[in-house]
Amino acid sequence: MPRYILRRLIATIPILLMLTFLVFGMLYVAPGDPAALIAGDTATPADIEAIRERMGLHRPFLEQFFAWIGGILQGDIGTSVYSGTPVAEMISQRALPTASLMGMTILISVVVSVPLGVMAAAFKGDTADRIIMVISVIGFSVPVFIVGYVLAYGLAIKLPIFPVQGYVSPDQDFGGFLRSLVLPSMALSFSYIALITRVTRSTLVEILSQDYVRTARAKGVSRGRILFWHALRNAAVQISTVIGVGIAVLLGGSVIIETVFSIPGIGSLVVSAIVARDFPVIQGVLLVVSLVYVLVNLLIDLLYPVFDPRISY
């Protein structure tokens, strides 16, 4: 077990290095002069040159990259071109709304999708299975912003149960904080539920066809015990894997949902930074979000031996 954990941690290091290189290189992949893009169409050559000097764009690429890495190791991931605010401070101010939205979305998704997947597998080929699979296909097909608008219209305008838009800080009103997250979390979880449901069903269907399951049935073990004690435990690795991979779906969808529901999170921050061409903020947000994704999947990898003690590679 310790050797497995050590190997997984070591394997993450080159991924993180490649990640930082790609995020930093994004500034140079964009067509045109980065300083001119940041300065805007009305900038003078002097303005462009001043930005180039301030951001160190006149230096060689690798020199800039290693200087950026050095700043990251010291907790400095850049400074906004327009506001002069450190990017780390801007992200920390927006982290709680996004983390709360992601947390509630994952909770809703797992609580809904795993029982649906178990039900679909238990009644494979029946009406319940077909209905659940149709819902899953719809979940994959409908864009997240349409789901958001439909939920807002139905549960905030027609039936004023939840607020249409906005975010309430938990230290101001915890009940209002939860209510402000319900609709965006439901909208964001729609495709995530479809993903986990389909994987849960397909994994359980395969497991239920194994010899040890047939043996358990022959011994008179109840259907519920077979499903939840034997099959679901053995499906935990695959289910946890898709939960980790699906974090990328949530991170991408949160950008849209935060804009639709006016949530002041990291997603809306990156949208405003793209509009303003604030490259240091874009780089900082992409770096932090990518690191979160890598670390979440690393944590899930480290949990594999807990779900299945046979895993030790």
Report on the architecture of this protein.
- The protein is an all-alpha fold and about 325 residues long.
- The chain has a domain at about 95-305: Orthogonal Bundle (MetI-like fold).
- It contains 14 helices and no strands.
- The model has no long low-confidence stretch (mean pLDDT about 85).
Q: Any key phrases for this structure?
A:
313 residues, mainly alpha, MetI-like fold, 0% strand, globular
Layout of helices and strands, plus pairs?
Layout: H1 2-29, H2 34-39, H3 45-55, H4 61-73, H5 87-122, H6 127-141, H7 144-158, H8 174-208, H9 211-218, H10 223-234, H11 236-245, H12 247-260, H13 266-276, H14 279-307
Helix pairs in contact: 1-14, 5-6, 5-8, 5-12, 5-14, 6-8, 7-8, 7-12, 8-11, 8-12, 11-14, 12-13, 13-14
Gist of the model:
Helix content is 78%, strand content 0%. By secondary structure, it is mainly α. Helix 1 (2-29) runs antiparallel to helix 14, helix 5 (87-122) packs across helix 8 and helix 13 packs antiparallel against helix 14.
Total helices: the number is: 14
- According to CATH, what is the topology of the domain at 94-307? MetI-like fold
Percent helix:
over 70%
Note the main sheet. none
Low-confidence stretches: none
For the record, give the distance between the C-alpha atoms at the N and C termini, rounded to a whole number. 9 Å
The pLDDT mean sits at 84
Query: What is the CATH architecture annotation of the domain at 94-307?
Result: Orthogonal Bundle
Number of strands: 0
Question: What fraction strand?
Answer: under 5%
- Described by its quaternary structure, the protein is single chain
Structural class: mainly alpha
Helix and strand sequence: HHHHHHHHHHHHHH
CATH top-level class of the domain at 94-307: Mainly Alpha
